[in-house]
Amino acid sequence: MRSVPASDTSMYAKFFKRIFDFFLSLIALIILSPLMMVLMIVGAIIMKGNPFFTQLRPGKDEKIFRLIKFRTMTNERDESGKLLPDEVRLVPYGKWLRSTSLDELPELINILVGDLAIVGPRPQLVRDMVFMTPEQRRRHTVRQGLTGLAQCSGRNNMSWERKFEYDLEYIEKITLIEDLKILLMTVFKVFKRDGITEEGMATAEDLGDHLLRSGAVDQDEYDRKQAESRDLILKK
User: What pLDDT is attached to residue 157?
Assistant: First the structure.
């Protein structure tokens, strides 16, 4: 798949997309603020503390930013202080937030400040990025999105390879019509509540774990990449 020359970038992608993102996210925050306030209060009670969850993610040009979501898992730990498995910490309230995608609402703040776009490749974990091929990492040449072509095509219930194919397909031609189409498809997916997690898993499998399990990388390569991701996070 060819790279996208700057001259091929549409006027919408270069200028108007960010303007639309800013004003649409601002309007959405104003309209949804009562609902978000309720979710903050309920989340604080159920999670027994901070209702928000933040995590470092690579954005445009692989600049690392802090993604904001509503917390869906507790911080319960075992006797040694290690976090319990995801399926144990994911409470019913958290499952409901994920199934309705309401846990994503605070990301409107990320869009408002310019970390995210409304539509774009979904920001993955730093520890996923280091396992991507150079071609796959081209997805970071644009702002990552609240939703994207991969998400409206299957959300988490598809292979990593297919997700990246959709991401690269999207960045080849960014238009207002395509973004509106993706938004409508996303709304349909959210109401159907399908493809939220990978089959048989409480949460999506990390790219590195997938590659190790499938034999695409060995344990030494896996450990080296994990150390690389930790170094990137420490530098942030």
Answer: 67
